[in-house]
Amino acid sequence: KKCLLIYFSSIGFWGLVNNAGISTFGETGWLSMEKYEKIADVNLLGSIRTTLAFLPLLRKYKGRIVFMSSVIAYFTLGNGIYSMTKAAIEKFCDALRLEMKKFGVQVCIIQPGNYARSTRIQPPLSAEEIWNELSEEEKEVYNKEYVQERANFFNSILSEGSANGNEVVDAMVDALMSPAPKARYMVAKLKEKALVFVCTLFPTVVMDSVLSYALSK
């Protein structure tokens, strides 16, 4: 989904919310270069292009810039292509936040958990759809049974997504209106926050073990 929200106030250009995001499911070799380019262009480069276009006004009026990231920036469970773009947005924001301090511009990141039922960013995919898009090389490595297992796994994650999308909107509003906005707003379930905790504070081998267990279920 593509969405750009610009907020104006009586003092001039005040806030920019970069909420551009599309996603797809698939293991690394299952996806074409065209899909990588398309998703990177929307999720990452689209936000960067918009930010650069409005940066002069945001500096002038000491405004706010809000980016839509995700807890998926910290880990991936079958949608590494989406995780890749969100991790890149996080680093872009970290650099921008530090650089904008001297101008009085505040940069905030929203990190939602699984809100797939609210956003419909990723429709369910059938194993047949996935299989038909695989290259011949990938079909020689993976069989239809494995693809079916992965499709079932990923679709079950989508079905568990929260339908209460206003929680994310509330975080956006706070980032725009609060006298002291947070650098990051993590809007996620406790188990998602716990997984982020493991990924950021524990050795990679622990993270890999946890994620491999989740993928094997």
From TrEMBL:
Respond yes or no to whether keyword Hydrolase is given for this record: no
Q: What is this protein called?
A: BDH protein
Q: Which InterPro entries match?
A: NAD(P)-bd_dom_sf, SDR_fam
* Residue ranges of the TM segments: 65-82, 194-215
Kindly name one Pfam family recorded for this protein: adh_short
Q: Which domain of life, per UniProt?
A: Eukaryota
Q: Does the record carry ATP-binding as a key word?
A: no
* Family under the similarity heading: Belongs to the short-chain dehydrogenases/reductases (SDR) family.
Kindly give the SUPFAM superfamilies that the UniProt entry links to this protein. NAD(P)-binding Rossmann-fold domains (SSF51735)
> What keywords tag this UniProt record?
Membrane, Transmembrane, Transmembrane helix
